[in-house]
Amino acid sequence: MVRLRHVILVVLFCFLTLASAQDKQKLRVGLGYLPDVQFAPFYAGVVEGIYAKAGLEVEFQHGFVTELYPLLAQGKLDFVVGDAEDVIALRTQAENPVPFVYLLALYQHVPNALFSLKKAGITSIEDLKGKRVGIPGMFGTSYTSLQAILEAAGLQESDITLEQIGFTQIEAIMSNRVDVAMGFINNEPIILKNQGVELSVISAGDYNTSAGNGVITTDAMLEKADLVRSFLAATQEAMQLTIKEPETAFKAAKQYVENLGDERMEVLITSIGLYTSDYTAKMGLGFSNPEGWASTLELLKRTSRVSTDLPAQTFYSNDYLSPGLGKD
Questions:
Q1: Are 149 and 207 in contact (CB under 8 A)?
Q2: Are 226 and 283 in the same domain?
Q3: Cα-to-chain-centroid distance, residue 219
Q4: C-alpha angle with apex 155: 149 to 157, nearest 5 degrees?
Q5: Collapsed DSSP state (helix, strand, coil) of residue 83
Q6: Domains in the chain, number
Q7: Which CATH number does the domain housing residue 199 bear?
Q8: Cα 188 to the chain's mean position, in Å?
Q9: Beta bridge partners of 134
Q10: Dihedral sign, CA of 171, 173, 176, 182?
Q11: What DSSP element (H or E) covers 141?
Q12: 281 located within any domain
């Protein structure tokens, strides 16, 4: 009888466990790059059970955003982590505008940065005049940040020699192909610093006030408002955990990023510095500053990157976030 009771309890436990797993809502999230520690909050959300506690089973798909955005538009992904300005560009394209909306700011500032060898003597944006400047291409937030910097310096693109170098910024700088390159403050400068290379670094966030990387979805997904709110609230909580316990988040990232060395902790710490701003101190983690969006839209229009009469609030929403979560 005791043995039978034991068998019944085991079967019941397995049934309840299976039922619990089946009750969880599956979500597919695209992370716009290769597996990397910069996505630590999302990894921690899974590993630390934050998404599970919210009744969610989250799966990640890594890849470049050019590969992920079509999947999001087709409903094969539910969310994608990408650039804020991509939403503006895709939603305003003349043919087949894509109904994307930006919901949560992982970064409050763009992570772009101009970096150069210290011996080049480029310490201010005015020093760019006459220099060879390398960027990945004439697209995306790297190009927008460069345009904002040139505008602030009173320079035109004709005042510099612009080189499209793909994502070979380190090689281009070290081989003297370019004098200065647009990279990411939480990537190339850290790598070179750890190699003992002396650099000058100019953060683009002081000039391009756009929100940085964040969570993007579709108008269709917003019809599942409760599900969207659950995912965003859990992500806000995972961001809060990452800020308070970076070692825990870093350990979670090791389950997704092969051969993640301890030297990459500096990348995470630098990324965490982008999560907060004066605006998040008032509103909470993940909130987008309306002034930043308005400024970005005007810059894109002024530089003829987009043409639209749509207001800035068309492209983002703070309405699905949990106010005050992570607020100072």
A1: yes
A2: yes
A3: 20
A4: 85
A5: strand
A6: 2
A7: 3.40.190.10
A8: 16
A9: 163, 181
A10: positive
A11: helix 140-153
A12: yes
- Assess whether 235 and 175 both reside in one domain: no
Collapsing DSSP to helix, strand or coil, 9 comes out as helix
Q: pTM of the entire structure?
A: 0.89
Distance CA 94, CA 76 (A): 24
Residue with tokens 């170098």: 165
The answer to whether residues 62 and 33 touch, using CB atoms and an 8 Å cutoff, is: yes
Between CA 295 and CA 262 the distance in angstroms is 38
Pairing, β 213-218 against β 100-105: antiparallel
* Residues 200-235 pLDDT 10s: 999 999 999 888 899 999 999 999 999 999 999 999
Q: Mean pLDDT, to the nearest integer, of 56-67? A: 96
In the sheet that 180-184 helps form, which strands lie side by side, from edge to edge? Answer: 161-164, 132-135, 180-184, 112-117, 199-203
Euclidean distance between the first and the last CA atom of the chain, given in angstroms as a whole number:
58
- ∠ CA 187-191-197 to the nearest 5 degrees? 130
Locate 65 and state its tokens. Answer: 């955003």
> At which of 154, 171, 206 does a domain end?
206
Q: Which residue has the tokens 């619990």?
A: 20
Residues in the chain, overall count: 328
Q: How far apart are CA 291 and CA 4, in angstroms?
A: 67
* pLDDT for residue 21: 47
